[in-house]
Amino acid sequence: SACLVGSEMCIRDRDWKLIKTKKKGDGWNLYKRKIPGAKFQEVKIVGKINASAQMAQTSSMKMFVDSSVYVSKKGKSLGWFTVFKQTEDEIELYSFMKGNFLYKDRDVVVRYGTFENATSNTWGVKWQQIDKEGYAASDSIIRMPMDKGNWQFQMIDSTSCMAELSFQFHPGGSPPTWLINMIVKYYAPHEFEYLKGICENESKETADN
């Protein structure tokens, strides 16, 4: 059995079902599993990143406050965020996501925190939605009831790590389950590739200097 570092839940490997694999380059594997008592799924993606585990952890914290994430490839605004607190180890922010023809405007308040496990040479970040005074849910925007997960980076050597992103997500309202699961399956590889790009660029710049 494999225990997720930084998570209270111990997950048996057989609970996870492989749903997609990218073989090109270092590649990645995408898995899903059913959450007891819920219709939507938990998803995780696992793959190698050519950067140290510590650098991957730092880059993931930067990614949460990267405004370019809120802009589409065509340059269209997808939303915005407000940061309440930002240290090396903790971030709290309000995130607003613009709706489209499939779903309405949504928002969520999230706390991100770093963790480290010296025994397993693992660094990471975990997050969860929180309540924040002055940011109560409004009638016009759907508040996301579930946004929690974690990044884990297990050291392979000083220039590479095995990265794992796992998360549970519900956009709120009553969208069909297939839509939620489709969004999650798209989001995991997108996030993984994005972070991998940031880490490997930073790693190359460090090596060049």
What does this protein look like?
A hairpin with a 2-residue loop joins strand 11 (146-157) and strand 12. Strands 3, 4, 5, 6, 7, 8, 9, 10, 11 and 12 form a ten-stranded mixed β-sheet that branches. Helix 1 crosses helix 2. With 209 residues, the chain is an alpha+beta fold. It is globular and about 50 Å long. Residues 1-11 have low confidence and may be disordered. The longest helix is centred in the last third of the chain and has 32 residues, at 177-208. It is built from two helices and twelve strands.
Show unreliable segments.
1-11
**Share of helical residues:** 10-25%
Shape: globular
Question: Helix and strand succession?
Answer: EEEEEHEEEEEEEH
Mean pLDDT equals 88
Query: So how many helices?
Result: 2
Structural class: alpha+beta
Give the percentage of residues in beta strands: 35-45%
Rg: 17 Å
| Sheet having the most strands | 10 strands, mixed
State the total count of DSSP E strands. 12
State the main characteristics.
209 residues, alpha+beta, ten-stranded mixed sheet, two-stranded antiparallel ribbon, 12 strands, 21% helix, 42% strand, disordered N terminus
